[in-house]
Amino acid sequence: TMAFRYVAARARMQCRSFQLRTIHLVPRQLSKQLPMPYTSPAMANLNSANDETTVAGSSDGWEALWQEGVEAGTCFDVSSTSPALLRFLEEHAATIVASGSGQDATALVPGCGRGYDLPPLAQHGFNATGLELAETALDAAKAYLSTLELEAAITDRMSLRAGDFFAEEAQYDLIYDYTFTCALHPSARPRLADQLVRLLKPNGVLVTMIFPIVDKEGGPPFRVDKPLFKDMLEPRGLQPVFLQDVPDDLCHRGREGFTALGVWQHKDCTAPLSVNPALLERL
Q1: What is the C-alpha to C-alpha distance for residues 61 and 38, in angstroms, rounded to an integer?
Q2: What is the pLDDT of residue 17?
Q3: Helix intervals (H) in the chain
């Protein structure tokens, strides 16, 4: 069909050196398909891994993948910050900072990759930490951040650190998950949810960019959706203050129709965030 050829063409531009497979979307647009980069040897190993470390969510396969080479704008690298995150920060970052730790407000990006999300978080007042299992990914992040012309005050609020998310102990005013959950083996999700709740400060905000919302087997990326996040987080005391599909103009290219935005807080927080239901509507 014309729609399929159009999507496939866009995917070839984004994943130039990768073969493609198609993954079928449900339930929003049954006729639409999501092209995904197929595999390199390291990705194939991740897709088939079922060892104890991988199942626990701390696979060393990500280091192998980054060593193999992840160019900006290919594979899972999206080359920029999510437009939907930028919209959210513009509207609500100041409130989160003020109701949290003020000038000492902190943000965590687990699985930060090249660190695209750290500058906007720092620019909006957070001391932003990018956490990565893969040392080579951190090298790529340092290289990327060094190319930006940022004021010293912004640079000083950004840090990169190698480490296992599940060993993290500090609490944060904001935690941002974009493709971290979908990168982990589904068996690690209860452990992941426990740790997200544990690391979120009493008035903190968890922001989840929920992707890929598809009907597929295996991974990474493993399929996710809004009900999955509700099932993970609500029994552990987090509630959604915003949970909507992301419109196409606020999605990364090639991820239109497959992404949702969730914003979560502790049910007993004393500074509930009021998010406009029209947050993501076209300005």
Answers
A1: 16
A2: 35
A3: 2-14, 41-48, 52-55, 61-68, 83-99, 118-123, 135-146, 152-155, 189-199, 226-233
Which of 49-63, 84-98, 105-119, 152-166 is the least confident region? 49-63
**Could you tell me which of 144, 76, 153, 83 has the C-alpha nearest to residue 115?**
144
Q: What's the whole-number mean pLDDT along residues 172-189?
A: 95
CA 126/CA 110 separation, integer angstroms:
15
Partners of 128 in beta bridges? 107, 158
151: how many CB neighbours lie within 10 A of its CB? 10
Mean of per-residue pLDDT scores for the chain: 85
Closest CA to 161 of 150, 149, 169: 169
Alpha-carbon distance of 230 to 226, in angstroms, equals 6
pTM of the full predicted structure?
Answer: 0.86
Token reading at 124: 């909006």
Give the pair of three-digit tokens for residue 21: 């497979």
In angstroms, how far is the first alpha carbon of the chain from the final one? 33
Q: Which residue has the tokens 């900006």?
A: 72
Q: Rounded CA gap, 230 and 183, in Å?
A: 18
pLDDT value, residue 27:
42
Query: pLDDT exceeding 90 applies to what percent of the chain?
Result: 67
